[in-house]
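Reopening this ticket.

The earlier resolution said the output was attached, but the attachment link was broken on my side. Pasting everything inline this time so it's all in one place.
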Amino acid sequence: MPQNFLECSKCILTTADDPNLALDKNGVCNYCAHYAEMDRLYVPKGAEAQSQFDALIRQIKEAGRGRQYDCLVGVSGGVDSTYVAYIAKREGLRALAVHLDNGWNSELAVKNIENIVTRLGFDLFTYVIDWNEFRDLQLSYLKASVVDIEAATDHAISGILYRLALKHRVKFILGGNNVQTETVLPRHWYWNKDDYINVKAIHAKFGTVPLKTYPFFGFREKWLSEFKNIRTVPILNYLPYIKSGVKKTIQEELGWRDYGGKHYESIWTRFYQGYILPAKFGIDKRRGHLSSLIGAGQITRDEALAELKKPIYDEEQMKTDRTFVLKKFGLTEDQFKNLMALPIRSHRDFASHGPIYDRYPVLRPLKPLGDFLKKTFLTPSARKTT
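Inline output:
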């Protein structure tokens, strides 16, 4: 064990997960402190939570009056998005279910989605991404040797959701992101999913197929969404979101079936989180997910450590997935090994989103005018949601 090895006394993070892990006098790490702060700020409790939730539902219904839909719900077949759809129906919302088919759906995910929309009676919009384009983009991320390959999918999901919200004049997107299960995640494990400049820069460096139909969430979409006051609402933060209880509910009510891991409804995500992240980057995302559940009081530290003793990936499933992934990408075993052996690079090695005045210094003299126009033409409610 390294000489300066530290581990949190509350969660299961160590300096192996983040070399900059900091402990307080009680041995509790900075991520646990961050969880407590996020919980305090964004997760109302008791009667206040119910009051805010009820007010939000009324606001969504009022904003959707006279329109075909009053909200959008992204569905993947996973736990969080399935429960969001269930809550939307329970509360009488007229939701449009939206799914991005990136070519990696498991059969179980497809069945779960079918059950969701059938039993809830929601319309489903599926965007089937152009595989040649998307394959080229994912391979670009592998060649770039950056950590967040999933940004290629997550960015497209944002692009589709906000484009549909603009098309249908919907003000609310119900998100499955939540404090209770997703807060503890070392910063170097992921990248900003909405950074369209980083996506374009990585593809420009390593891609060969033009991204003609890839649904970027670009400057135009971001500006229009802000101007139209479209909001993504983490609705699960207003509810007592107990993971084990939620799974039982959606199994009983929607015929949902478990797939064995967080976001494992995607074959690619299963292979990425179960093999690529640990083998190349030394990252076991279970440590973050389980630490979040510890912070939420849903499991104990001992229970989390016991979970970690289980294999991160079933050996036979991994072999099957590896064969499938390489064949789908058109890679030989040697080519894949070479990609895995590339030196790790930071997303910051490529152009990334930031203030336009930092990216284009020549525009800095125009910043006061830009600030004035934004303040003048955006409504107070729109500014509040940015």
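Reporter confirms the inline version is readable. Confidence is low (pLDDT under 50) at residues 374-386. The chain has two domains: 47-282+314-349, 356-386.
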